[in-house]
UniProtKB/TrEMBL annotation:
Pfam families: Bac_luciferase. Transmembrane segments: none annotated. To bacterial alkanal monooxygenase alpha and beta chains. The lineage of its organism: Bacteria, Pseudomonadati, Pseudomonadota, Betaproteobacteria, Burkholderiales. One of its GO terms (cellular component) is cytosol. This is Luciferase-like monooxygenase. It comes from Ramlibacter albus. NCBIfam families: oxido_grp_1. GO terms for molecular function: oxidoreductase activity, acting on paired donors, with incorporation or reduction of molecular oxygen. InterPro entries: Bact_Lucif_Oxidored, CmoO-like, Luciferase-like_dom, Luciferase-like_sf.
């Protein structure tokens, strides 16, 4: 069976372009990926981060729903400790009314921001401690069960969003197993570290709940170009962003020509390791790496995230992967 490919986009800011353009590029990319046959298009949530300007996945999902017909649309994810589970359920029931049977509601515990910003979103500093209870409440609201007497999350219809657990550690894996939820591991955050262990933990702890048997995917950073040399050239923008993050510096993505060089010895060692693990190359080369990862993890779908300074290069990368499949 051919590997199913999906997309995660974060609306990355780029030097020389307005942040509003990044948002519009995300919507255009969703239309492009639907035409290419991708299975899902997911959107992340970050706050007050100069590199990533996708702050409201539910708003972007509505825009994408209005411009697509087939592709599943999802959040990867809603950072649930910031919000009321009832309000999130209402938002996603509205989205499901706009795109019936096409909505994925991925939730996570991480703040998607620094602690100061998190407190502006929710003044309760202990909100993340209530995450399991929030997930249970959200599941009940989404399914149409009345959590509070006489109160329902509307609109009701013949379909409902699919609830996913997102994570980059064993915590989310165990919680997904406990609730019997689909699970997505953020491979791109850890550079793969802990992926197999998290999926094994998920499968070991799984008990039927929202779904009858375990269903997992991983979100992987990958970049394809017409030649391997070109792909590594484009990768320089991502490479620089990762080094700058190690320094505690966040900003718009630099063009590849401006992103190269200037590393300390320890940073060069980090870059060498990053390149060794990176899924970069031609379409067939990257697909082979993704397929090998999927085979090793026992999954049949991979969610691909790609950062490039030039949106045309990002679209081309997804074209080449789709063609390779």
């Amino acid at each position: 069976m051919a590997l199913k490919l999906s997309v995660l986009d974060q609306s990355v800011a780029c030097v020389g372009r307005g942040q509003d353009e990044s948002i519009r590029n995300t919507v255009a990319l969703a239309e492009h990926c639907e035409a290419l046959g991708y299975n899902r298009f997911w959107l992340s949530e970050h706050h007050s981060l100069p590199t990533i300007v996708g702050t409201a996945p539910e708003v972007l999902m509505a825009a994408i729903a209005a411009r697509t017909q087939r592709i599943r649309i999802g959040s990867a994810g809603v950072m649930l400790p910031h919000y009321s589970p009832f309000k999130v359920a209402e938002q996603f029931r509205v989205l499901d009314a706009l795109a019936p049977g096409r909505i994925d509601l991925g939730v996570g515990r991480a703040p998607g921001s620094d602690q100061r910003t998190a407190l502006l979103l929710n003044p309760d500093p202990r909100s993340s401690q209530h995450f399991p209870q929030q997930v249970a409440q959200l599941s009940a609201w989404i399914s149409g069960e009345a959590v509070a007497e006489g109160v329902q999350a509307l609109p009701m219809s013949g379909t409902k969003p699919d609830l996913w657990m997102l994570g980059s550690s064993g915590y989310g894996a165990q919680l997904a197993g406990h609730f019997g939820m689909p699970y997505a591991f953020a491979h791109f955050i850890t550079d793969g570290e802990g992926t197999k262990e998290a999926l094994d933990l998920y499968r070991h702890t799984f008990k039927p709940g929202l779904i009858e048997k375990p269903h997992a995917t991983v979100c992987v950073w990958a970049l394809a170009a017409d030649t391997e040399e070109q792909a590594w050239h484009l990768f320089a923008s991502r490479e620089r962003a990762r080094v700058n993050r190690q320094r505690g510096q966040f900003g718009p993505l630099l063009p590849p020509d401006e992103a190269r060089g200037g590393y300390t010895a320890s940073e060069q060692a980090y870059v060498d390791d990053l390149r060794r693990k990176a899924m970069v190359g031609t379409g067939p080369q990257v697909l082979a790496k993704l397929q090998a990862l999927a085979d090793d993890l026992g999954i049949d779908e991979v969610v691909v995230i790609t950062w490039t300074w030039d949106p045309a290069a990002q679209r081309r990368s997804y074209e080449l992967l789709a063609k390779a499949v």
